Amino acid sequence: MTLSVFWRILRPHTLNASFVPVAVGSAYAFKAAGVFSPPPALIMLAACLFIQIATNLFNEYYDYVRGLDTAASVGIGGAIVRDGLSPRFVLGLALGFYAAAAALGVILAARSSFILLPLGAFCMICGYLYTGGPYPIAASPFGEAAAGLLLGSLVIGISFFIQTGFVTAAVFVISLPVALLIAAILTANNIRDREGDAAGGRRTLVILLGHRRGVVFLAALFALAFVWSVGLCFRPGFGLWFLLPLLSILPARKSILLFRRGENAPAAVMLPAMRGTARANTVYGLAYAAALLLAAFPLPA
Question: 164 with 35: CB under 8 angstroms?
Answer without folding.
Answer: yes
